[in-house]
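User: Sequence in, structure out. Go.
Assistant: Echoing your sequence, followed by the structure tokens.
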Amino acid sequence: MRNILREKTDAFKYTPVKNAEKHKVLQSRKKDVAKSIAMQFAIEKNAEVIPYTTNTALNLIVNAVEEVNASVAFVTVTTAIGEADKIINLLENFTDTTVHNGGKVVLFIDPSCRYKFKYPSANE
């Protein structure tokens, strides 16, 4: 978790999410819930959480698919420049590739972002 908790301002209130272990991908618009899921995934997989921004995830999927191999990916989704459908498709490709490579993914969707993904939500 130290990768996404670099400053005191990054602290969060842990909220256990029921049945999170049954999912490979979960999304939330609540930062505390998303970080809680990432922590649960990290404990389950005994792995570090790797943070990604929207731009980093897009660059990896467009340029270096073989490098998408995080055990637990925490993607902060913000609105990117370009057509929404294409951005969503690329981010879903990133997520699906990470899962295919054995990882789990948490999507923290910024509340101001209007993207809709195909993955289950955890918004307790």
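User: And one key feature?
Assistant: The chain has one domain: 23-109.
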